[in-house]
Batch of 2 targets.
Target 1
Amino acid sequence: MRVLAGETAEVPPVWLMRQAGRYLPEYRKLRESAGSFLDLCYTPELAVEITMQPIRRFDFDAAILFSDILVVPDGMGIGVGFEDGHGPVVDPVRDAGDFRGLDPDRVAGHCAPVYEAVSAIRAALEPEKALIGFAGGVWTVATYAVEGGSSRNFEAVKHWIWSDPAGFDRLIDMLTAATIEHLSCQIDAGADCVQIFESWAGALAEPEFHRYVVAPTRRIVEALRARHETVPVIGFPRAAGRSIDGYAAATGVTAVGLDTGVPLAQAQEIQKSVPVQGNLDPILLAAGGPALAERIAEIRAGLAGGPHIFNLGHGIVPQTPPDHVAELVATLRGEAA
Ligand code: CP3
């Protein structure tokens, strides 16, 4: 929280995107006994336990709520399921005719168990550790809602953008309203800060990047600040390239998460105006060895002159050996793993 407030730390605080999940044997065991992935998200005791697993094992400086970005469309009435090995499967919203029955005001009630988990995690967590709430960026969530799941080329959603921009804007508006409520409820329940995961920001060129990434993020930040004046917001516009440079000023986010592709020289420029978070390659963390140690030192040294939260450039991958994560934390803190 101090680094988010602009302090430069001698040892950078560290957490990892997707730090709770399948690379941990204790997660896989719980997951097997629990039925579906969404049951984990909507059962507070399980969400609390999974959130705490990586904190116990690695002593990270922050916990991130165990949940998913797709609980927001699920709560609005867009059907969401997770199939083993296939990722998310969503009932696609393809045009304004599919809006019938969708209601952003239902998200807060639907996600009550999520907020219950947030309160219980905050109570269980040591006071000096931060609790991070989160939501997907509106554009990223829209890609899943329109494509019906993960996508490579975003053809359906882009066709909609250019054939019926006014209709698509209504979807963006509904998702924005729902996201504001969802984040606000997490903050009310005890989240110390929130992160907006805009994982597919890099799929858009500048005019659409502004309309569907920057503008909704700005609305979310402004609405949150009106209710919770000081809450820090971390924006993560993944793979947005040069568009990341003006993103913090244009959206009002407190800090910027940097993807793996952001060069340290560019990161240093951004760090002159806002704290940065990132950006170790998750595949390098899985690979390990001397290249990993070298890269950790480079990122650390490159961003030591300003506020920096150590993290990956995208989520941790399931094949990551937990030992490599323990080594990363020990290396940063100057301890033996
Ligand atoms: O960071 C954390 O540990 C908190 C939990 C968290 C999850 N998903 C749990 C999860 C967070 C922050 C997310 C964010 C998320 N979810 C994003 C944005 C970040 C990113 O990685 O780009 C996206 C795009 C999703 C949507 C999603 N959820 C997909 C595409 C999938 C399937 C593929 C995959 O990466 O697993 C999920 C499932 C999911 N979300 C799992 C977990 C632990 C795996 C579920 C399982 O056990 O099978």
Target 2
Amino acid sequence: MEKLKIAGGYPLKGTVRVSGAKNSAVALIPATILAESPVTIEGLPDISDVEILKDLLEEIGGKVNITDDEMTVDPSRMISMPLPNGKVKMLRASYYLMGAMLGRFKKAVIGLPGGCHLGPRPIDQHIKGFEALGAQITNEQGAIYLRADELRGARIYLDVVSVGATINIMLAAVRAKGRTIIENAAKEPEIIDVATLLTNMGAKIKGAGTDVIRIDGVDSLHGCRHTIIPDRIEAGTYMILGAAIGEGVLIDNVIPQHLESLIAKLREMGVNIESGDDQVFVNGPSNLKAVDIKTLVYPGFPTDLQQPFTALLTKAAGSSVVTDTIYGARFKHIDELRRMNANIKVEGRSAIISGPVQLHGAKVKASDLRAGAALFIAGLMAEGITEVTGLDHIDRGYSNLVEKLNGLGATVWREALTQEELEHLKNT
Ligand code: EPU
């Protein structure tokens, strides 16, 4: 096990290239199960969630090849092997195996998903959707058992706008008989990306990216080649860093339209941003103004950038309020930021940040992926050395982080944990 060490206080300058989107990748890889011939996905990020999904596809008989950032999956010999335990518990997105295996095999046994602890993360809308398509579902000893004699298209209204439920229902519905209509669907760019892959595989989907998606089921799906969209959350993280300590940071391979809410907020703070077709240039001013943000479903401000943005707000003059309407308990980074001298109070679903303060280096722990991002941003903003443990969370979502940060002029390195630190981590 390793920790991330950061010598903070140095400005960042130069170009960073964004990798393929994690939250697309983790759905696109399970979606390959639905095809009957090889599917190639280009532009995959180098993150641990991709590795885990590769292993899971191999467990059910898939032949998977990865070269550089390209994965080819031959799903022709896959079988509906039960996956009640083990690696499925390591990531949230293993729930996409339910929709994909139900679609292809009409049965699946999948352990309840793991992932970041952001408060309660129910999957009732996924289950509601599968049941509407004709599946019988039981929950036995921490695993979900799904079975259908036949999947039939249905009209499904999501009571909660959910990215996961929208994609999961799409995965099963492409192989159902007849038409499925998902109402109150989520509109995130990752949903369009998955719909594009499925369409290239022969599926009939209309309306992805709007709140009504229509799917006409087909009898079989075939292989294809697909290029994944850039990771808007990784891009946003580097934009926040550019605003905090950048002296001219160019973020390359980004779709600026995916980040309009962040760009608007950064401009409100006084950050200079220029955006091109697939690049964004960020120049951090010496004085930042306090702003309020409220996380919302797309195209609102993304909850996944709430924690990184909080780190930036410690540098802004005045009082900022950050409210998370998606995950009301996504505040585990706050105590760690306080150790670094941040002045933040949490009240219900909101964090109130008073600034500006100069952050100090400290030993801190990432409790989840984006808390980790908040902490490495804070470490780069701070005076002195910061040590971030819980690196396994950060490795789930940030491809080649150390190389990318050092490429911008940061001084960041990984170091093995001492025996004493390992013991301490086990006990906390
Ligand atoms: N919800 C329900 N019932 C459900 C599903 C969701 O009540 O059946 C609630 C959730 O508890 C939450 C809200 O609906 O309050 C939205 O959840 P959603 O289903 O949209 O989230 P998700 O699909 O589980 C994905 C991303 C998250 C990101 C959220 C919101 C993946 C693998 N994960 O999660 O990404 O925060 O959408 O945009 O795509 C991250 O990247 O750090 C991360 C956590």
